[in-house]
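Notes from hallway chat w/ T.B., transcribed later so I don't forget. T.B. wanted the structure written out for a chain they're using in a teaching module, and asked if we could keep both sequence and structure tokens in one place. Agreed to drop them here.
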Amino acid sequence: PPRPIMFVCSPTIHMSMLAPLRAGFRCALARTAAYTRSYSTESLKRTSLYDLHLELGGKMVPFAGWEMPVQYPDGVLKEHMHCRSSSSLFDVSHMGQLHMTGKDRIPFIESMVVGDYATLPVGHSKLSVFTNEKGGIIDDTVITNAGDYLYIVVNAGCADKDIALMKDRIKAFKSKGGDVNLDIIEDHSLIAVQGPKTQELLQKFCKSFDLSSMGFMTSHVVELNGIPCRVTRCGYTGEDGFEISVPSAKAVKLAKDILQTGEVRPAGLGSRDSLRLEAGLCLYGHDLNEDITPIEGSLAWLIGKRRREQGGFPGASIILDQLKNGVSKKRVGFVATGAPAREGAQFTNDKGEAIGAVTSGTLSPCLKQVVGMGYVSTPYSKTGSQVQVVVRGKAQPATISKMPFVPHNYKK
């Protein structure tokens, strides 16, 4: 497929590209709207950085029950390109942060997710998914082995249901003699700083710890400008970066200090969405949901050898059977010509027959090409397969492509 192996993501955008790029970003912004419909303005929560967002000129929108910045005066395109070339700060405090304690915390969490945490070293983090009895994905989550507890981060739009489910399962687990407890971290904010210059810039605030010693998906408690923070080398942009769990009382000070370097600039939900899509990363509620299994979602790699052999997670019989015998549809990436394909656009074959649907799509600022992901019937899921995507009633040529579209820049 027409996908470069290596390239430099240039900040240069020709004027002729602005209209289709804006159309692509409207697709990204539209995805945020799906989280707004079930929340009234009066019920929206605010993060500790809310006033700072207003001070910085952030355009605030409802998102997963929170008032969050979708963009700043620079605009989504410039925010996107700045993150790819330098460093950007995102407020992700709307996400749920949890501590799980008790001597049986590992067997308990493994009874809810597909990942192997019994062998995860202290100070390391791993992506996984909660599953239901049908094998569907309840939510995706990053779980860190923090030594005597697990540090768990869940999606904002799923936090309430995740917490309710865990509390319900804990009650049953304890009734059988299990030792596990769950605490919601309500006094900490979460700040993501992402981009190739992030380590260099954050190191200025971290005098007693060498951030370069941290590999991708590792986590440590360090001091940033004298503030104790849990710093995890991960993110949602495909770039190198860190997510910083910081006491909410100090979050504004730390964010201002980081922004005052002059190199780091604020970025909102719009660019976060286009960045994650270029990186081939899923957005829960769009690319994943409770009716899609990890195998259908092309996430079989989350299930390690021991979990494949032993099972023990919800829906294991269905998921393990799919691993062995295959599935009827798969999540794929695609590149296309023409207008950006919005969520719900149909994939068709050369006979015009429906073979699947788009779940996310945009015009990539770096590739200057329509990219997206969605689900197609398995016979069409092979990289290089030629399909069509229907946009405004017109079938446009598309090619099934490997993801990420833009190579990941994670710390090795």
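Follow-up for T.B.: The first helix runs from residue 15 to 33. Might be a good example for the class.
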